[in-house]
Amino acid sequence: GAVVSQHPSRVICKSGTSVKIECRSLDFQATTMFWYRQFPKQSLMLMATSNEGSKATYEQGVEKDKFLINHASLTLSTLTVTSAHPEDSSFYICSAREMGHRETQYFGPGTRLLVL
Amino acid sequence: GDSVTQMEGPVTLSEEAFLTINCTYTATGYPSLFWYVQYPGEGLQLLLKATKADDKGSNKGFEATYRKETTSFHLEKGSVQVSDSAVYFCALSIIQGAQKLVFGQGTRLTINP
Questions:
Q1: B33-79: per-residue pLDDT in tens?
Q2: Which long-range contacts (CB under 8 A, 24 or more apart) does A40-43 make?
Q3: Strand-pair category, B75-77 with B62-65
Q4: Nearest to B98 among A41, A43, A49 (CB)
Q5: Residue B88's closest chain A neighbor by CA?
Q6: Is A92 on the interface with B (CB under 8 A)?
Q7: Counting beta carbons within 10 angstroms of the beta carbon of residue A26, is it exposed (0 to 12), middle (13 to 18) or buried (19 or more)?
Q8: Distance to chain A for B85, nearest Cα, Å
């Protein structure tokens, strides 16, 4: 089946630093990738939609200068949390949609970010 | 706007009990409906889906029927196992544009032996 990986799985950083999270589709090409944020015991909140070769589309209320998204190839999207603060601590999840399959998203295992 | 409402958890059942997790939705148009499952420490996995009214999605003993008249997509299983313990998310797919998923709040299910 389709596999999506994320790296790192867990990261701890100091306040003010930037953190990059990678999302890769391992065995398929993904024209569209999505980035979600999940707070403890809550649902997934879509942050942005990333299309290969073009700028990401951000959801209302998500700061695009703080959460930089790059989708440079059909198998890789990155999310960079710039100048991270403790309130950015969360579980970040990506998903990828296979080219030609509009209905199904495959999810990565998530990245736990803790900002001290 | 489009939204999904799930029954609040947590839900705790004994092994072999019957399971129902309620899900209702609000949407313009005719969305596709999904159930995703998140096992401890893992990412979301698609459990089942239905793309039009009266469709029944099924997988691993779980079933859900797309009911347009009641705007519902309740998840059921006749006999749960300890290994079914997880968080279950109901979701709908917005048809226009990038076809985004809108998730319910999730229901934590614990099955005791």
A1: 999 999 987 888 999 999 999 999 999 999 999 999 999 999 999 99
A2: A40/A91, A41/B106, A41/B108, A42/B105, A42/B106, A43/B89, A43/B103, A43/B104, A43/B105, A43/B106
A3: antiparallel
A4: A49
A5: A43
A6: no
A7: exposed
A8: 15
